[in-house]
Each structure stands twice: as structure tokens, then as C-alpha cells.
## 1
Amino acid sequence: MPSISQLLFELKYRLQKTVHPLHAVSIEVTGRCNLTCLHCYAEAGNKPEMSLEDISRLAADLHRAFRPPLHICLTGGEPLLRKDIVDVVDCFKSKGYSVSVVTNGTLLTRCLAEAFGTRLTGISVSLDGLTKAHNHLRGGDVFDHALAAIKLLKAAHVPYIGIKTTVYRGNLADIDQLYELVLSLGVDLWHVFAVEPHGRAADNPELLLTQSEYAQLRDKLSLLARDKKLRIQFGEEMVRSSSCSACTLKRCTAGITQMAVLNDGSVSSCINATRDTVPEGNVFSENIGQIWEDGFKRNREKVYRQCGGHHYERPACG
Ligand code: SF4
């Protein structure tokens, strides 16, 4: 028998699927990247990026359809490869939207950190383990750069700093030590993902966790979250202590309260969704407000499996 809170949760989710209020848009502001990570879902590298004019037009189109509050998350590729990244931030800030950035941290300077400190509501830096595991996944000697970036962002008082960790076979054993490191950095959120077989990760199956390693990771994070010293998110879900570990997982809101615009203008439910998914439209040829209204049927009609009367879905993307 579901509890009152589970029934209310279900009701709220059904309402969200019907009303689909847009809360956040992730925008791939470049397909270029200075790294060649083994798991990159975007398969970023020498790919195109939107011009500043395209981005400015997108900001205006968004604003016509969606008044603030709306959160814009700038991602890539590596957004900091753009020399005009501060102008890109300002395109959305000037519309009254809150803006955050996702970066690998390797290109951050003190000057840029200070510009971000006065503009962004948050930033996420990738840190995928201790030195060896991070450098292996990221394909270069970049661990120290990521650490330095987090310290610069702290010094520049960016209001909300998150660390994103992709867990793969090579860093699963590092989780306890990585937790201590993340804790010592004084960040606001540790966002942990298990590597998914999308993009370049599909070509590197040795990275993928088995089902039992995945469960082991989820249970370890639930345990670490118990001491409440650090906010931990696993996939799209906050990790909380619960007698049923499956119940620590909630619902994916891709296509329900959030969408993503890829570097070629195509619109998807989530930046991490597989690139094989048929796009819902393209912002260069269609109205973004209309795409949001008419698209995303797959997400809005999604039915969740249940686990012993509790809501349950593995937070895989796609
Ligand atoms: S995962 Fe991020 S840092 Fe790595 S190649 Fe892809 S876009 Fe670049």
C-alpha cells in the first residue's frame, strides 16, 4: 500500500507531465573540446559551435516563449574554449535568466573565475577520481588543473560549486578517498554518474559497471550521504538514506521540466541522452516554444516500474 507521501509525489509528477512547466534548458554552446575523454557522450572534439549571433537569437526566442525564472546551463564540448564565453553568459543574464556552466576546468583563469563570480548562479567542474583514474578517463595530465579550477572558483565566490564525477571501472575503488577529497574542497554538491554506453563510452565497454557494481556504488553513496556532511546526487536523483535503496531514486524530468539544445541547434530532452534519439526539433528552423509544447511525448508518457509498491526506475539516460 503506497504511503500518503508516495501518493502525493505521484500526483505531483502526473501534474508536471501534463502541465510540463519549463524550469531549465541546457545549451551546448560548442562541440569543440580540448580533451578527448574516453566516455564523452557528446563525442566532442573538432565539432562546430553556434555563433554569438545564433546564441543571442536563441536567448531572444526563449525569452519570447518563457519569462524568467528559467535556468540556463551552458555546456559543450568545453564552453571555456569560447573566447566570448562571458558574452554568451550575458546573452541569457540580460533576459533575467539564471546561468550556470559545466566545465572540465582545464582552461579556467583567475580573471574568468572572477567574471563568473559576479554572473553565474553555479558552476560544475568534472573530477573523475584520484589522479590516475581522472587522467586515464580524461586522456591527459589534467587532474591538477581541475583541482586548481575548483580553488579559483571558491576564491572568486561563485555562489554554487558542484563537482561532477563519472564512475567507471577504473575509479570505483576510489570512491571513499574521492569523497574525502570532495569534502575537503568545500563544494556545495557532489554529482555522481555511472558511465553509460553512449557516445565514446559505447566504444569503450571496459569502462562500464556491471549491475552489481552499479548497485554497490548506489549503496555506497547512500551510506556516505547519511552523515549529511556533503550533498550527494546520483544520476538525476538526490541520494537519501532509506531502508529500500531503490526508493532513494525519484523521477527523471527530462522533457517534462527541462530540455537541451545541442550545438547544431537540435533539441533533445537531456544533454546526456543518446545522440541516436530523434530530435524534437531544431531551434534554427522552428520556434522553441512550439517545440516544447508539441514534443517530448516519449518523456511525458513514460511509465515507471514499481518495486514492492515503491516507485523505482534506474536513472539511466536515453
Ligand atoms: S566529456 Fe567533457 S571534457 Fe571530456 S571530451 Fe567530452 S566535452 Fe570534453
## 2
Amino acid sequence: MTGSNTNRNPRYPSDFKLNVINLIQASTSYLDRYATALGQVQRVRMVAPNATFAEAYAFAEADLGILQNREEIQWLFELVRAARPRVVLEIGLDLGGTFFLWSRAAASDAHLIAIDARETGRFGDWSPFHLVGKSFAVDSQRVSLMMGADSHSEATRERVATLLGGRPVDFLFIDGDHSRDGVWQDFNMYSPLVTPGGLIAFHDISPNPAESTQGVARFWREFTSKYETEERVLGHDQGYGIGIYRVRGSHSSTSPISSGNRGDD
Ligand SMILES: C[S@@+](CC[C@H](N)C(=O)[O-])C[C@H]1O[C@@H](n2cnc3c(N)ncnc32)[C@H](O)[C@@H]1O
């Protein structure tokens, strides 16, 4: 009578109970995360489409998290707002602070695309993180979040090209992999998608780097010896600093001013 033996096995009911308890705990924690996300979505919607920098930054800092020096990112925010980009691509979303700022600085019909290697859980596009990120869109803006995507993979670049459907990027923000080669690779892979006259910005270019930003500082030294750039390094902390490059007139625009290779030396 094997069947009745199995039922009398003392481990069987306790394993079952344990599984049920685990399931209830996992569901409760997911429900909590959804409840938190829905609260955040409501607060996102209270930040006006034409919010000032101070209003948008205050929300990003208090509700999302942002890894920026306030004065430096204000400089970039105002430049982006003046340009009113219709296609924005951010590499390195993290908690979404800067991406949120672009939603308030871009055109009312902008397509905002973000790439990040971070995974956002088993529910993909329906995860709490995605619900909040998607809610950044105002008016007829559209948000595409590419989470769990390595910007350096060709498959990711192809997905971006498909999302763009032939439209050029007006503003590219590079704040992902902070190694010297990683920043060069992001620039080399995605700058050809940026329109002539478009803006490319890099974060963490400060010549007084933190340990984690040394690669970007080295990249920036090499980059500025080849391209015309502008920068703001305003804080006293190590790291931070924003550099910008305006793509020049034609598509060779992303070629260096002087000849030389593009970072692979
Ligand atoms: C410094 S954080 C971005 C901060 C954000 N822009 C802000 O200021 O609020 C860098 C992000 O880049 C992501 N990242 C690093 N390497 C990457 C890669 N190769 N592809 C995609 N994302 C990457 C990390 O997961 C991390 O979330």
C-alpha cells in the first residue's frame, strides 16, 4: 500500500505547508511592491509635463533616486529642454532619476528609450519597476525600457534600431558601463544613431575621479583630444562631472576632429 505510506510520511505535509507559506510570503511581498509602485505612479503624475528643473529634480531625488551633482545635471537639463529632443536614448537607467528628468525636458511627443543591464523580476513589462518607468511619459510621449540588456551586445543595438524604426536619436546620455573601453564601446555603437546637430552627454568625466569613475576620466581625456566638447565639473566630490559633444554636420560627424583611431589604442 505505497500510496497510504506516502500520505503518512511526516515530511510530506510539512513540505507542503512550507511551500504554501513561501508562496504566500512571495505573493505578499510582490503585492507590497505593486502597492508601492502604484503610489509612485500617482506621485509621478503630479509632476507637471513642463515642470521646472527644481520641481523635476526634487521628485527624482526624493522618490526615485538620482546619482548626479545637482548643478551639473541642471546645466544638462536646460540644454536638453532647449533642444526639445523627440528621441532620447539613455544608457544606464539604474533607479530612473535622470531618465525621469528627460521626460520633463523632451518634446511632448518624444520617444524615450532606456537600456540597463539590471533585471527587473519575473513579470517583465508588468513588473512594479516597469509600471513606474512607463508612467514617466507625459502627453503623447512613449517610454521603452530595455531592462536586462547589455548595451554592448549587438542584439541590444539591433533592438534599439528596431524601436527607432529609422528615426534618429536627438539626445544620447551615456551613463552605463564606467570602464574606459565600455564608454568607448557605447559611443562607437550608438553615436551613429544620433542625428547631425544632436547631443551626446557623458557622466562621471571628472579629472578628479572616484575609484569607480577612473575609466570614464581616462575615456574623457582621450575623447577631448579628438573631439570638440564642453563640460561642467562643479562639485568638490570625487567623480561626477558631465561632458557633452554635439554631433557635427554629416554622418562622418562622429569622426574625430583630427585623424586617429576611436579609442581602441
Ligand atoms: C551610475 S548608474 C546610472 C545612474 C542614472 N543615470 C542616474 O543618474 O540616476 C549605471 C547603470 O548602468 C548600468 N550598466 C552598467 N553596464 C551596463 C551595460 N553594459 N549595459 C547596460 N547597462 C549597464 C548599471 O546596471 C547601472 O544601473
